[in-house]
Amino acid sequence: MTHSSLIFAVLAFVGGMLVAAQGPIYARLSAGLNRDFLLSVFLAFSTAAALTGALAFLSGSFRNLTLTTLTHLPLWVWLGGVFGAIHVVISMQSIPALGVTLFLVIVVTGNLVGAAIYDHFGAMGLEVRSFSLMKAVGLLLVVVGVGIVVRA
Q: Among its keywords, does the record have Metal-binding (predicted)?
């Protein structure tokens, strides 16, 4: 593994730990707002939008933003934020019932199955990476792992 790959691997690990913290944070936010998931998601995303907007402004990211650039993007790129909001709502509702570990094991399983499908078909402009027997075995082992966590 190269030095830069190792740095990115560590960053990915830290990112994963931050994702694990998001669910309980969102669940507590929702509980504190009488389980009003719409208000909770709005407040959470407003915080994120304000922070990233300020950082983008300070870094000069908005200099190259034009209406032409925005209108030439495929419509499906706007689904990322929608999917994020849906995931947050799901986490707010599921974590109190499942716990963080089981919730995230199931989420990661969904991530991996989705990723295998997206890779296989080259979805969203990805390079096609065909599904294989070894990937199927790996995914099956992940599903077995979910079963073990459920019983733990």
A: no
